[in-house]
Amino acid sequence: MRSWRKSYGGPKEACGVFGIYGHPQAAELTYLGLYALQHRGQESAGIVVSDRRKLQAYRGMGLVADVFTPEAIGGLSGDIAIGHIRYSTMGASTIKNAQPFQVEYSRGELAIGHNGNLVNARSLRDELEASGSIFQSTMDTEIIIHLLAKSTQPTFEEALVSTLKKIKGAYSLTLLRENQLIAVRDPHGWRPLCLGKLDDSFVVASETCALDLIQAEYIRDVEPGEVLFIDKDGPHSLKPLPQTSHAFCIFEYIYFARPDSNIFGGNVYAARKALGARLAEEYPVDADLVVPVPDSGNFAALGFAKSSSIPFEPAIIRNHYIGRTFIQPSQAVRDLGVKVKLNPVRELIKGKRIAIIEDSIVRGTTSKARLRALREAGASELHMRVSCPPLISPCYYGIDFPTKEELIATRLHGLLHRGISHPAGRVGIQRGIGENAVNDRRRETCDIRVTNDE
Fold first, then answer.
1. Pairing state between β 420-421 and 381-386
2. Which CATH superfamily is domain 15-246 in?
3. What CATH number was assigned to the domain covering residues 268-442?
4. 445-446/353-358 β-pairing
5. 244 — alpha (psi -120 to 50), left (phi > 0) or beta?
6. Where along the chain do its domains lie?
7. Whether the Cβ atoms of residue 37 and residue 94 lie closer than 8 Å to each other
8. b/e burial code for range 313-347 (CB count within 10 A of at least 16 → b)
9. Looking at residue 394, what is its pLDDT?
10. Which residues lie below 8 Å from residue 172, measured CB to CB, with a gap of 6+?
């Protein structure tokens, strides 16, 4: 979902979606589902519920636990619900952009939540505005609503299919009507989306960790190109979009997804650990300790330590009351977050040769501060190992590094000669992930950020 500016140069975002059908505590369970997905966005949260007659919405700015008071949840009655959490990089941090969006139009009421980016949003919005559409937000998600409202197809299902054939890019969607929950995943499958079951209720979520929290059983992933309808007759799906190559976002494995989730046919924890083992194989080091950068480097460090037979030591302590610097809105806040977020244990670091394991380097802001802190703690040597290859290209499909100028790997050449070692590009990272996937889908991943292939 893109935050739109008139210059059409707005920043990109990623989010989390959740939906449940047929449960009397739909709002409460959606709240819990969003809580499990909080790592996917910290800026705003929203829930829309249907009681089979009308839709009710509650949205707010901030964390899930802060937005939804007991009174707010208690006011959302119904047995069908969708929820959404969002982050943005800069600007457009207003309640008007909080999702799910809710509208009333000729076919009734509708709510929608979107994880991803539409790459043809500029041209679609220009066409819609030229024909008289008035937009209430700066999100490309609203384009989907306008296309649905303008469709002349006789049924909602046909209107939805017609709309999906017009949009291009990454989208995992949840839609809510008075009596129906709908989940949609783009034909490339860029963002994860899964289907689960809780007793007689059905659940959809961005990650399986949300199913785990509410004790729902995982059934399967929503397939790329699938339009899944859930109503009184249970789940039934269409695959009306042209088949194409899959492009599962590899950065979900590296950083974005929670380690206890299963996505794209594999476990995130196992994939990150395997990447660490691959890193130790390709770039061994003579060190006294393997130290992860918490929390995202923990599992790669475990794999690195096991493969290299060097003791693993969590010698950097994280303040868990500080948000993830990757998803803070401004660089100034990111810089502040780095200083207060992590603190090395001097007694463990002093005089030691440290192999410090990071999952990725994006802007380089946090890495510089961490290395400085370790030197000040008395490390005799620092050897940085990064489980993701250098990020050299922007992402157009919903991860927060939109320009090459922001990526340190495009500004600094010869990183391997500066003491920073990465796995050997596409082959190394795909081998690391593929070896631990339930299904070997490494050839179906999107790794544009490390290859610059468009």
1. parallel
2. Aminohydrolase, N-terminal nucleophile (Ntn) domain (3.60.20.10)
3. 3.40.50.2020
4. unpaired
5. beta
6. 15-246, 268-442
7. no
8. bbbbeeeeeebbbbbbbeeeebeebbeebbebeee
9. 72
10. 17, 114, 115, 116, 183, 184, 185, 186, 190, 191, 192, 193, 206, 222
Burial class (CB in 10 A: 0-12, 13-18, 19+), 309: exposed
Residues 95 and 60 sit within 8 Å (Cβ to Cβ): yes
52 vs 33: CA distance, rounded Å: 21
State the SS3 of the chain.
Answer: CCECCCCCCCCCCCEEEEEEECCCCHHHHHHHHHHHCHHHCCCEEEEEEECCCCEEEEEEECCHHHHCCHHHHHCCCCCEEEEEEECCCCCCCCHHHCCCEEEEECCEEEEEEEECCECCHHHHHHHHHHCCCCCCCCECHHHHHHHHHHCCCCCHHHHHHHHHCCCCECCEEEEEECCEEEEEECCCCCCCCEEEEECCEEEEECCHHHHHHCCCEEEEECCCCCEEEEECCEEEEECCCCCCCCCEEHHHHHHHCCCCCEECCEEHHHHHHHHHHHHHHHCCCCCCEEEECCCCCHHHHHHHHHHHCCCECCCEEECCCCCCHHHCCCHHHHHHHHHHHEEECHHHHCCCEEEEEECCCCCCHHHHHHHHHHHHCCCCEEEEEECCCCCCCCCCCCCCCCCHHHCHHHHCCCHHHHCEECCCHHHHHHHHHHCCECCCCHHHEECHHHHCCC
- Alpha carbons within 13 A on the beta-carbon side of 35: 13
Side-chain-facing half-sphere of 128: CA atoms under 13 Å:
24
Torsional class of 332: left (φ above 0), alpha (ψ -120 to 50), beta (otherwise): alpha
Residues with active-site annotation: 15
- In one letter, which amino acid is 210? A
Give residue-wise pLDDT tens across range 352-364: 999 999 988 877 7
Give 178-237 pLDDT, tens digit per residue.
999 999 999 999 999 999 999 999 999 999 999 999 999 999 999 999 999 999 999 999
Q: Which token pair is 24?
A: 């009397």
For residue range 295-327, what is the model confidence (pLDDT) as tens digits?
A: 889 999 999 999 999 999 999 998 877 654 444
| 15-246 and 268-442 have identical folds | no
As a whole number of angstroms, the longest Cα–Cα distance in the chain is 74
How do beta strands 194-198 and 217-221 pair?
antiparallel
Mean pLDDT (whole number) for 347-375: 88
